[in-house]
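Re: the 295-residue chain
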Amino acid sequence: MSIFSSAAMGGHALGRRLRTAAFALAAGALVPLGGCLDSGDITGSIAPVNEALPTSNAEWRVYADTWGKRYDANPGEKTASINYAKALRALTQYSQAAAVMEAAAVKAPQDMEILAAYGKALADAGQLQQAADVLTRSYTAERPNWSTMSVQGSIADQLGDHTQAQQYYRDALKIAPGEPTVLSNLGLSYALTKQLDQAEQVLRQASESPRADQRVRDNLALVLSLQGKFAEAEKVEQQDRSPQAAAVNVAAIRQMIAQSNSWRDIQALDSKKRPAKPAPGAPGVPPPAGNEPAG
């Protein structure tokens, strides 16, 4: 199911949607988009170099079964734990993934790669403060980890500390310049603080990367829609979907916005960027004909 498929959302849904999107990207949560699972690697070095990661639910179940048996044979072993947890996260079994990585962290409490995977699993499971605490121990100034910094940013965004979140993203980009997932998270963070021009600029930069995936383009389409640029949003969506599916997704976003308070907030923001209109009755200005459309 696409993240754009739910049209009936309430007043605070837009903020939740943005937070969810930002967190999913940063944490490597394998969010279903257009019926497919994105197979972003969680650790970057545990899986065999030539191993192609799964791209569907069925393949992830096989992957989980394979690594689950290896984990059962030696609970807490590093490679089995991380790859089994990766599969569990892909299958949205977040609590179980966190439990698997907790066992590994107990056996190797100083292993930074295990701590990084544990922190990400905790974040997936919604244990945000604990995840933040674990992730601070998963890298050092001498051995920084941009992926972990990006997760820390997503956690800060979810906790409402957008200034700190954006600093994490900028620090991550110093290590991995132009990394589209980090840029995308930064763009969504700007959107959460209603800096929509900056959000669009950063997300366009992210989407232009050859490493950008469908999630990045979906986030650009979301931010374009938040500014009322629905035709542009459809064009972005059409890079990964049929014109019909793109239209359905953008229509769903449009309905979601219309059912929330955020649309009027965005309109108010936009009006602040424009010269003030003369008051009705001023020379050359006709009186209003009626109520403005609700949008």
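The mean pLDDT is 79.
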